[in-house]
Amino acid sequence: MARRRPLAPTRERILNEVERLIAVQGVYGFTLKDVIVPLRMQVPAIYKHYRNRDDVLIELARRFIDRLATQFPISADADPITALRIALDQFVVFKLSNPAYVRLALADFATPGGGMEYVKLAAGGSFEDNFSSGPLAPMHRRLARLLGAAARTGQVRRIDPTDFYRIIKATLLFRLVFPDDSLLLRAPGKREVAAIQRWLWALAQRVLAIDGRDTPSRRRAATR
User: Fold this and answer.
1) Is residue 214's pLDDT more than 80?
2) Do 183 and 176 form a contact (C-beta atoms < 8 A)?
3) What is the value of pTM for the model shown?
4) 5, 37, 116, 143: which has the highest count of C-beta atoms within 10 A?
């Protein structure tokens, strides 16, 4: 007889359900009652672990910050251009694997000064601060190393890592929600993931092109 898996701690089960609800209903599209019904809990049980709804969302954002902090790894066995592409491919997988994070990030951008900025609070500072300090600073340093190594090959131009991250992050977020957000409502297939990875890499190559010229890798792709 197979053993039952032990239940995750209540605090984690609450976060898991909130993450699922945000992915399909949005940041503001659910109540705490929606959370406790599938968990067979009572609302007071949530307050044993979290002060209020915002507290739950900030804690969930911390979970995503921890995952985001691992992005843009350095692939030591790959040449610099390939290493950059691998990192961007993984960035796409991260966003598609965490649809609730996509929605939380967009909510942050939509609530300047006075709004509840969940991801910013979870990161412990402003977005600008996290380029140089805080839990996301190592990620930004790795991206700077990837871009610097790629530029030293002479195949792409030098670019400010912050500007590059702005372009990549903003366009990918927008791509996943406009003109529809169907990819956030279900697990995308391998072909769909690959298509978005190719799209983002094509965008990155245009951004990195020297004096508006095609990069060597784009020219090779065009002749295939």
Assistant:
1) no
2) yes
3) 0.85
4) 143
